[in-house]
Amino acid sequence: MHAPTRHAVRLAVLACALAAIARSTTPAPAQPAPTSAEVLIERERAFANAAAARGMRAAFLEHLAASAILFRPGPVLGRAWFESRPATPVRLAWRPWHAEISASGDLGWTTGPWTIQRDSTQRTIDGAGEYVTVWRREADGVWRAVIDGGISHAIEPDARVTEPSASTLPARARTGTGPLARRESLWRADADFAKAAAASTTAGAVRLHGAERLLLLREGLPRVAGLLAAHDTLAARAERPSMLSTAQFISEAGDLGYTYGSFVRDTDAGADSSWYLNVWRQGEARRWELALHLVMPGAPPRK
């Protein structure tokens, strides 16, 4: 057998080097882009996994923003609320059903079913419902929850787990208006919705301001998806509430925002005070449309 020539050795070395370079430049599995709603689904799953592994208190303290609001039943600072209470054996489990994110990738929301058990060792479920979490990407690049609320109902989540849907709003040219003006336009949309609800019922307000894919969450009912279904559900209640916005926040792109505040209905038993959370998105005509309408129960009436 002939010994390899110096030229052959150089070719072999070059081939090995090229192979090593090819291995080092092989792309890693695709990761969701910072502006993809898949980021929120992953963050929500991490939140739920932390609750299963370390308990509800530890998970919320890890994932809540410093200014996060929870409804207990009225709005409270979430971190302070959990810090003032000891850990409990209560097990809260949930999974995302839908996520939406702004084109600027700094604001989004998730929703899905939840269940609760008084003790993590038991098999029976003590309660079920739907949650909504609003997420904000903070200065350090980490997504943290800024709003968390929901409703309960008697229907347990479907055991057939399906992949959640994800929606990323399309990038559009800026309108030229500043952040303050964009936030004011969101406040006005919410105020117009409240005015229409007081004048022509919540069903009428939803018909005027709701998106085609509107999601309605009301205490005691499973989620209602779609504008027509939401209108028909609310029409049966014929309510004319008084709504007062407490806070508004809008994405950097000005295409997604949320508002929350008081929701008071006059009933035969007296005033029924609740809290609402509205998530708004801008449609193609740059008109704010209601993507989510959530009304959470208030404190039970005093006897």
Question: Can you give a write-up of this model?
Answer:
- It contains six helices and 14 strands.
- The chain is an alpha+beta fold and 303 residues long.
- The chain folds into two domains: 38-168, Nuclear Transport Factor 2, Chain: A, CATH 3.10.450; 179-296, Nuclear Transport Factor 2, Chain: A (Roll), CATH 3.10.450.
- The longest helix is centred in the middle third of the chain and has 31 residues, at 179-209.
- The chain starts with 5 loop residues before the first helix and ends in a 7-residue tail after the last strand.
- Residues 1-30 have low confidence and may be disordered.
How large a portion of the residues is in β-strands, by DSSP E? Answer: 35-45%
CATH class of the largest domain reads Alpha Beta
Structural class: alpha+beta
Poorly predicted residue ranges: 1-30
Topology:
Elements: H1 6-24, H2 38-54, H3 56-63, E1 64-71, E2 75-77, H4 78-83, E3 91-94, E4 98-101, E5 107-117, E6 127-137, E7 143-153, E8 165-168, H5 179-209, E9 210-218, E10 224-225, H6 227-235, E11 242-250, E12 256-267, E13 270-282, E14 288-296
Parallel strand pairs: 1-7, 4-8, 9-14
Antiparallel strand pairs: 1-2, 3-5, 4-5, 5-6, 6-7, 9-10, 11-12, 12-13, 13-14
Helix pairs in contact: 2-3, 5-6
Task: Pick out its properties.
14 strands, 8-stranded mixed β-sheet, 2 domains, Nuclear Transport Factor 2, Chain: A, 6 helices, 6-stranded mixed β-sheet, 303 residues, alpha+beta
